[in-house]
Amino acid sequence: MSPAPLITNDAVVLGLLSLLLGAVFWTSSSPHPFWRRFYGVVPALLLCYFLPALFNSLGVIDGEHSQLYPVASRYLLPATLVLLTLSIDLKAILRLGPKALILFLTGTAGVILGGPLALLVWHAIDPAIVEGEVWRGMTAIAGSWIGGGANQAAMKEVFAIGNDLFGMMVAVDVIVANIWMAVLLFLAGRAETIDARRGADTAALIELRRRMQRFEAEHARIPALPDLMFMLAIGFGCTGLAHALATPLAAYFDAQGAWAQRLSLSSSFFWIVVLATTFGLLLSFTRARLLEGPGASKIGSAMLYVLVASIGMHMDLRAVFSNPGLFGVGLTWIAFHAALLLIVARLLKAPVFYMAIGSQANIGGAASAPVVASAFHPSLAPVGVLLAVLGYALGTYGAWLCGQLLRVAAG
Q1: Is residue 269 in a domain?
Q2: What's the CA gap between 29 and 315, in Å, rounded?
Q3: Is the model's pTM score more than 0.85?
Q4: Domain hosting residue 274, numbered range
Q5: Dist. CA 298–CA 232, nearest whole Å
Q6: With b meaning 16 or more CB within 10 Å and e meaning fewer, what string describes 18-51?
Q7: Residue at 24 is within a domain
Q8: Cβ neighbours of residue 289 under 8 Å, at least 6 residues apart?
Q9: Helix (H), strand (E) at residue 130
């Protein structure tokens, strides 16, 4: 029997997690040279998972018996999905041009297809690495690499991923994704030379910079109290509606038999996630989309990081090193994604920017896509956000599809 944790009160645990998140964001935004060098090596997102996991592993808190994750996953996660998809402006994305969208969707396809292919490759190399329930854990990576942390958390529930396996997959996700982002930033510094050598058409990119500069200047504003209340009303109102509809839908499909259960259609959580994402998409065609100006996605992201910390407190860090071969699986997966993007970019004679942002909007999401975009030009950061929020919308559906393909590949 394991000893009782030092802290058992969930209110105290929530306070501790909030302090940890605050410390990560304070230090990651610090201009101090030490912290700039530190976060140049260690991603802030990894710390948001790692620090709660460290406290859990040391017996300070106990994620298994805490009720924070059930609350965060059932209430904060759907609201997060609504607020992150609320800002999608499909017209603006279409104005980016077909090449940007083609490369973004190519990146999505690379993740959906690359996972099952990596599973098959490693099954041939060393079946022991990918045996058992590993395919389930890979759906969490698919959720993260198509959408983001909210979609990753959704896949954890939909595919019933064990906490230890999920912890390993988070480590694979973050480390492999940041290696790839370093490659994209390297390419950004040499983009003009590469584009000139390949004869890429950059005229649309120059016009895109001008348009995004105007867009940013016209829509950004300081949030007022009514703005914040509207965001909460929409986020939690849609969450309540998703819960109300999910129960009868899950019951209906559960009665349909094994095929529906196999596809997760009998899971109420599956329907909560899908409905919340759909509600956000529908609202993006209304004036509710204007709430992005005062920061709807920022509120959604703040909720997301509380969820991230609550997921982290379930991890046993010792389990991360129990199957290091999984990093090889992740690298194979990202290599397929990269190869597919490079081939399509070459065929389209697309600028490096479109390839890089199309990839990072998938792999890194809204947290890092603007970083890669601004490495090409500061005014292009919103382009990364636009494509990344499209990834949030596709993440639930794409990761679920990838999960079904992984299930088949695993036999």
Answers
A1: yes
A2: 26
A3: no
A4: 88-297+319-409
A5: 12
A6: eebbeebeebbeeeeeeeeeebeeebbbbbbbbb
A7: no
A8: 86, 87, 88, 89, 283
A9: none
Per-residue pLDDT of the chain (411 residues; tens, 9 = 90+): 567 888 889 999 999 999 999 999 999 999 999 999 888 777 777 788 889 988 988 889 887 788 898 888 889 988 988 888 887 766 666 666 788 889 999 999 999 999 999 999 999 999 988 888 899 999 999 988 987 776 787 888 888 888 888 888 888 887 788 788 878 878 887 888 888 888 877 777 777 667 656 766 777 788 899 999 999 999 999 999 999 999 999 999 888 877 776 666 777 888 888 888 889 889 988 888 888 888 888 898 888 888 888 888 877 666 656 678 888 999 999 999 999 999 999 898 888 888 998 898 888 776 567 667 777 876 566 677 667 767 777 777 888 899 999 999 987
294's tokens: 């005062």
Total domains in the fold of the chain: 1
How far apart are the C-alpha atoms of 224 and 31, rounded to whole Å?
29
Contacts of 247 (CB under 8 A, 6+ apart): 268
Distance CA 395, CA 404 (A): 14
Query: Residue 14 has which token pair?
Result: 């929530």
In the numeric block, which tokens belong to residue 179?
């290696």
269 secondary structure, DSSP code = H
In-domain check, residue 286: yes
In 3D space, the residue among 361, 365, 383 whose CA is nearest the CA of residue 374 turns out to be 383
Report the C-alpha gap between 196 and 351 in whole angstroms: 9
Cα distances (angstroms) measured from residue 128 to each of 136, 266, 318, 325, 331: 15, 31, 19, 9, 17
**Three-class SS of residue 148?**
coil
Does the residue 242 lie in any domain?
yes
Q: Which residue has the tokens 């649309």?
A: 204
